[in-house]
Description:
Residues about 25-30 have low confidence and may be disordered. A hairpin with an 8-residue loop joins strand 8 and strand 9 (about 190). This protein is an alpha/beta fold. It is built from 5 helices and 10 strands, in the order E-H-H-E-E-E-H-E-E-H-E-H-E-E-E. The protein is elongated, with a radius of gyration of 23 Å.
Amino acid sequence: IDLSLFGDVDGVExxxxxxxxxxxSLEIRTGKTPRSNGLRDHDLLDRTTNELIGSGNNRxxxxxxxxxxxxxxxxxxxxxxxxxxxxxxxSGLNDSIxxxxxxxxxxxxxxxxxxxxxxxxxxxxxxxxxxxxxxAVAEMDAKTITFGGLLIGSYGHEEHLQQFSRQFNFLPxxxxxxxxxxxxxxxxxxxxxESDKYVYC
Length: 201
């Protein structure tokens, strides 16, 4: 899909999903380190995609609060009578069908061997929680920002979100002009509407 074709189509929303919590979490026995596990930093550094989304009027950001699964994947070739029956009746299935499940058999895990655990990643503390909200505005001048996913609540950051939302919802739902700057850390935008002038940093 060429997102540039849909950026200004009435009735169409172009929404990019950012996943701030998933890959910043470490798992047992994976050998991952904070350096190799910072994959979601791509959300903040992918200028090509951000500029593509931000160039249209239908620019939206969904901040996905997700969990990560801890355990190890066990993959093997399927040996199942139901699979064989499907093949016998001409389903087109072949011998490359495999099964996969997560096994969590760490010595401190007290339940069944094939249970696995899902838990949230660790969100940033204090006002740093708003990193992804600020990024949505700075990179894409987002028209809407939504938040949700697999976990309930906002980890005790309701006050920060309320403060941000009051300021964000005050801005008109129009594209702002970016003021040229030599700073990578600060974005300044300006809007001259019919009755008011708006500046945000």
